[in-house]
């Protein structure tokens, strides 16, 4: 599937899921604006390596998703570099774990701000350009926690449920303008954050890393396998293409059967 001639913004794309999505979009021919919090020399090395590997235009903008000026700069920089934003992948997110009665109010506000409010603001910024070009793809990286709940994840679950709802509204409001908005809902993905959870399980239970992986997955993900950033990127490429033009306002789980229970 070719995305040649299209431009994409992928937030939180210097590692994990975001990087996997950015790489698959670039491999499909899209010009990609990377975003994250890397030291300038690291960001430039990553940008240059991707541009060489995929032969597309790759740029980088460091932007704090909670700051209006940074969000504006991210979109303005993409328009300046590539002429517009055809694909917006909202991937940046944070997590905090605590029971409701102990949940710090500042952490609640921060999780909601990054995982939900910032996404609304970015979508609002790109919609006018997409309407003018009569084509656009908004892809929200939600979570299985946008479909179900888990204990100690009140803010994250609330934000991801809100994101699934926002996805439906954007899809409905702009479906006659050639614009789609869909959510991808991953289960367990072996990112650096999850890697630390695996190591913690192994240490706590005195078991091997391989045993800790099965311990983690068996609780919720029936396939006993992680989804990979590359697989999630492949789904994003499909949703960004013409074959997905009539998929709109929906949420697609990639969770090894987690939500099928």
Tell me about this structure.
- By secondary structure, the chain is α/β, with parallel strands linked by helices.
- The protein has two domains: 7-187 and 227-254, NAD(P)-binding Rossmann-like Domain (Rossmann fold); 189-226, no CATH class.
- 50% of the residues lie in helices and 13% in strands.
- It contains eight helices and seven strands; from the N terminus they run βαβαβαβαβαβαααβ.
- The protein has a seven-stranded parallel β-sheet, with helices on both faces.
- Helix 1 packs across helix 8 (229-240), helix 3 runs parallel beside helix 4 and helix 6 (192-205) packs across helix 7 (209-220).
- The two termini are 33 Å apart.
Indicate the structural class: alpha/beta
Helix content: 40-55%
Q: In percent, how much strand structure appears in the residues?
A: 5-15%
| Arithmetic mean pLDDT | 97
Unreliable residue stretches: none
Q: So, the CATH homologous superfamily of the largest domain?
A: NAD(P)-binding Rossmann-like Domain
Please describe the structure with a list of short key phrases separated by commas or semicolons:
alpha/beta
Draw up the topology in text.
Layout: E1 7-10, H1 16-27, E2 31-35, H2 40-54, E3 58-61, H3 68-82, E4 87-90, H4 105-133, E5 136-141, H5 154-174, E6 179-186, H6 192-205, H7 209-220, H8 229-240, E7 251-254
Parallel strand pairs: 1-2, 1-4, 2-3, 4-5, 5-6, 6-7
Helix pairs in contact: 1-8, 3-4, 4-5, 6-7
């Amino acid at each position: 599937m070719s995305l040649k001639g299209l431009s994409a913004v992928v937030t939180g794309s210097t590692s994990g899921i975001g990087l996997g999505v950015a790489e698959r979009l670039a491999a499909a021919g899209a010009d990609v604006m990377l975003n994250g919090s890397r030291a300038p020399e690291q960001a430039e090395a990553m940008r240059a390596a991707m541009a060489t590997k995929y032969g597309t235009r790759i740029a980088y903008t460091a932007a704090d998703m909670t700051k209006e000026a940074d969000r504006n700069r991210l979109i303005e920089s993409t328009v300046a570099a590539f002429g517009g934003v055809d694909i917006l992948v909202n991937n940046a997110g944070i997590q905090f774990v605590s029971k409701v009665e102990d949940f710090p109010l500042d952490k609640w506000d921060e999780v909601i701000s990054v995982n939900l409010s910032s996404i609304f603001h970015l979508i609002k910024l790109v919609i006018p350009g997409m309407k003018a070009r009569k084509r656009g793809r908004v892809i929200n990286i939600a979570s299985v926690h946008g479909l179900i709940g888990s204990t100690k994840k009140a803010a994250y679950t609330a934000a991801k449920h809100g994101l699934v709802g926002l996805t439906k509204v954007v899809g409905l409001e702009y479906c006659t303008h050639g614009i789609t908005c869909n959510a991808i809902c991953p289960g367990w993905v072996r990112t650096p954050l999850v890697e630390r959870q695996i190591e913690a399980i192994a240490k706590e239970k005195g078991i091997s890393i391989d045993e800790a992986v099965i311990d983690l997955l068996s609780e919720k993900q029936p396939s006993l396998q992680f989804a990979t950033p590359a697989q999630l990127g492949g789904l994003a490429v499909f949703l960004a293409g013409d074959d997905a033009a009539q998929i709109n306002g929906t949420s697609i789980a990639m969770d090894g059967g987690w939500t099928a229970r």
